[in-house]
Amino acid sequence: MRFNSEDNNYMLFALQLSTQGDGRTWPNPSVGCVIVSPKDQNQKSHDIIVGTGFTGKNGTPHAEIAALSEAKDMASGSTLYVTLEPCCHYGKTSPCTKEIIKKGISRVVVAMVDPNPLVSGNGIRELKNKGIKVSIGCCEKEAISQNSGFVSRITRKKPEVSIKLAITNDNFISSSENKRLKITSKKADEYIHALRAKYDGIMIGSGTVENDDPRLNVRLRGYFDYSPVKFILSRRCEININSNLFKGRNDRPLYLITGKKVDETKLNKLRENNINILKVEDDPETGFLCLNDTLIKIGDIGINNLLIEPGAILLKHLMERNIPDDIYIFKSTKKIADSGVFIPEIHNLLEDQKTNYDLSYKREVFDCDLMYYKRDLRS
Does residue 167 surpass a pLDDT of 70? Predict the structure, then answer.
């Protein structure tokens, strides 16, 4: 279907609105909505935006409901632009389709069909059956990209996975002493925290916990509530009670991911301290926790977008299994020379050797170079 420039512009605005919910709407996708009336308050004929909305925290309210609430009576006879097909089933909220019909919307422009089997064309069909004109596919490519994590969880049963790496100017992520190595500057860290805020969950390995004692939250003014759910890979299911993660376990949900043979008494003590447990299968090839089963279990929780900040060992296993969908590498000006640990996976990426990833862009981020890689879809 062909769309005019006005349709495209309003949908692009809705897509911009949808990003405001990133990292806060899971298990729902972050959706944007714009309502355009053909008349203003004085009944003069020209298009005017009468309502906007995006998905709220934990998925409520839905974008359409927020926009309709703002539009009020001006919604009647208007066109509603939405980045994902309106829902038609009862969940945390009542169906958006019923409210759209009730408010007298005359046309609905949908960017993409909802892959969720509970909707998947049924919302569009319900609107059409009530005489509402429905146009599908406006800015569809952009909408699929925006909702790629949700699409992945629904269709692959796993979240979309991003990796974030910080490397020195001589291409190391750690020193041979296994001590905490501060690579990026305070300004670059702020950018990284803004990136972290866009994800539903964040995961690291037990080695990073021991060496770096991270907090895994978002430390930007006004954005603490955007901190992701924390996941720790720990085959022995251990956490230091003096660690930052243990101290901050009540701020955001904290999950320890462990094997199925860990003693239940040990697990119950952790649960009593408000630490959640995810049991996963072992990988028979490596003896480590199975990363595929880990991602499925995380997807079961409702996480759409997962950021992994791996150490050398976890990075190796992730790359060998072609798991990351995209990779962010922040390269600083710091050098550590002979005290660094050579990481073949990083070398291959930077030298464009033997990888399934293509460099999408490179840009300066304060005193760092950011290199962003996307997985080659042919791989």
Answer: yes
> What are the sequence ranges of the domains in the chain?
3-146, 156-373
pLDDT of 178 > 70? The answer is: no
The annotation status of 212 as a binding-site residue, yes or no, is yes
Express each pLDDT in 247-284 by its tens digit.
999 999 999 999 998 989 999 999 999 999 999 999 98
The CATH number of 156-373 is 3.40.430.10
Question: How does DSSP assign 305-369, residue by residue?
Answer: EEEE---HHHHHHHHHTT--SEEEEEE-S---GGGBPP-HHHHHHHTT-S-SEEEEEEEEETTEE
Confirm or deny that 350 is annotated as ligand binding.
no
171, with CB counted inside 10 A (0-12, 13-18, 19+), is: middle
Residue 72 C-beta-side C-alpha neighbours within 13 Å = 3
Q: What is the DSSP letter of 58?
A: G
The one-letter amino acid code at 278 reads L
**219 in a labelled binding site:** yes
In CATH terms, the superfamily for domain 3-146 is Cytidine Deaminase, domain 2 (3.40.140.10)
To the query of whether residue 64 is one of the catalytic residues in this protein, the response is yes
Q: Report the alpha-carbon angle 171-174-175, nearest 5.
A: 105
Place of tokens 């701020």: 251
Amino acid, res. 34: V
Cα gap 165→362, rounded to integer Å:
14
In angstroms, the CA 257 to CA 297 distance is 9
Residue-wise pLDDT tens digits, 97-139: 999 999 999 999 999 999 999 899 999 999 999 999 999 999 9
Among 64, 85, 99, 345, the active-site one is 64
pTM over 0.90: yes
Contact in structure between 245 and 230 (CB atoms under 8 Å): yes
User: Does 156-373 match 3-146 at the fold level?
Assistant: no
Mean pLDDT of 31-54: 84
Structure tokens at 277: 């447990």
196 is in an annotated binding site: yes
Tally of CB atoms within 10 A around 153? 29
